[in-house]
Amino acid sequence: TYSYNKRDEYFKRAVKVIPGGIYGHLGPASGCYIPANAYPFFSERAKGAYFWDVDGNRFIDYMCAYGPNVLGYNDEEVDAAVEKQMKEGNCVTAPSTKMIDLAELMVDTVAMADWAFFAKNGGDVTSFAVMIAKAATGRKKTIMVKGGYHGVAPWTQKLGYPGIIDEDVSNNIYVEWNKFEQIERAVAENPGQIACFIATPYHHPIFTDNAMPEKDYWQKVRKLCTDKGIVLAIDDVRCGFRLDMAGSDHYFGFKADLMCFCKALANGWNVSALCGIDALKDAASSVMYTGSYWLSAVPFAAAIACLTKLKKINGPEYMLNLGKKLTDGLRDIGKSHGFDLVISGAPSLWYMRIANDDSLMLHQEWVAECVRRGAFFANHHNLFINCAMTEEDIKYTHGIADDAFKAVKKRHPELG
Ligand code: PMP
């Protein structure tokens, strides 16, 4: 199994000059990577479905850079578009018309979209969505789902977290996923005060089995929002273009008012997008919202190439099918060794958990054994498929998983 030597030297350098060394959920201090000693911390290069760390270990990467790697690292079509645009110009006083080309492509691709607005990160557009809802309705309050993630802006965080004060979150109302009655009650208890309901298209929290919408859930939410003048904003940052090129609201048979995209938009180039309906276009242009790099042309060129290729190859269907093969196999291999591997969420961004013990320790042991053999999984975050992965890669991963189950079983004779 792999060893990590140079890794620790680099990390020592990093913590001296960077708070946390590697910050947020991408670092070894995060719950995603337990036990940290099983994981590589720094990459040296990446290609297709794989990356190599600073110790020369190769990983098939099921985190996909937390989603952006949708076509494969260094995809040739995207990178050709990037190189061409770099020669023409990137961050210029007057934006390139690539911005218009991309907005037109989004409007053509995303079913609900009458317009598109571009920023850099997922959190830029979830915050913008909530601001637009407030501007359009003149109301203060936002209903959101417990355990949902919309970024790191103060309004998205929890009271008690460092740096968060009660005013940041005092206009949020939290409901449980799939509990339409709770939304109904919140609306009834706050008449004329709810600007927005924001949620992901299905529930993909950390540490918890992911959950699809119950039958008619979104249709009921849609009707309530329409009846009460509430803006329905969907955070498609993670699911976007891994379920349906027309948007995840389309996949689940409803129409959102605002849709946030980011991760799979440009194969790792830095651009996010908010799409909206005509009725919210004036409110969107009324909000003061922009940034130094938001109109840069290289990421627009990357996004155009990425979306065009995803449409051409029917990326979402490919990833859903391949993900199903991978997860069906993992479940069966687990079963053959006496492990109950529970799979949830969509197969293109599935969540998994060994259910033999509630502490999740066995799960962490198995994941660590997979990582040390070259299959990069996080423990308690959903995982991702990309379009560079093949059936060969799935077989390779199944082999690693099999060996990892054997290693865990050997350490736990009590499992029988
Ligand atoms: N919403 C969802 C559903 C996400 O998964 C993420 C990123 N993990 C965000 C918002 C925030 O995106 P970013 O980190 O690019 O700001």
Taken from the alpha-carbon principal axes, the silhouette is globular
**CATH secondary-structure class of the largest domain:** Alpha Beta
Compute the number of helices: 13
- Placed side by side, the strands forming the largest sheet appear as 4-10-9-8-7-5-6
CATH topology of the largest domain: Aspartate Aminotransferase, domain 2
Give the averaged pLDDT, no decimals: 97
Q: Got a strand count? A: 13
Assembly annotation: single chain
Estimate the strand proportion.
5-15%
Describe the structure concisely for a colleague:
The protein is an alpha/beta fold and 416 residues long. It is built from 13 helices and 13 strands.
What does the model show?
This protein folds into two domains: 6-61 and 314-415, Aspartate Aminotransferase, domain 1; 76-312, Aspartate Aminotransferase, domain 2 (3-Layer(aba) Sandwich). It is 38% helix and 14% strand. It is built from 13 helices and 13 strands. The chain has helices spanning 6-17, 76-88, 98-109, 122-137, 166-169, 180-189, 217-228, 248-251, 281-286, 297-312, 315-336, 361-372, 391-411, and strands spanning 43-47, 50-53, 58-61, 115-119, 141-145, 172-175, 194-199, 231-235, 258-261, 272-276, 341-344, 351-354, 375-376. Strands 4-10-9-8-7-5-6 form a seven-stranded mixed sheet, with helices on both faces. A hairpin with a 6-residue loop joins strand 11 and strand 12. The chain is globular. The mean pLDDT is 97. The structure holds 4'-deoxy-4'-aminopyridoxal-5'-phosphate. Residues 66, 121-123, 126, 149-151, 200, 235, 237-238, 262 line the site of 4'-deoxy-4'-aminopyridoxal-5'-phosphate (PMP).
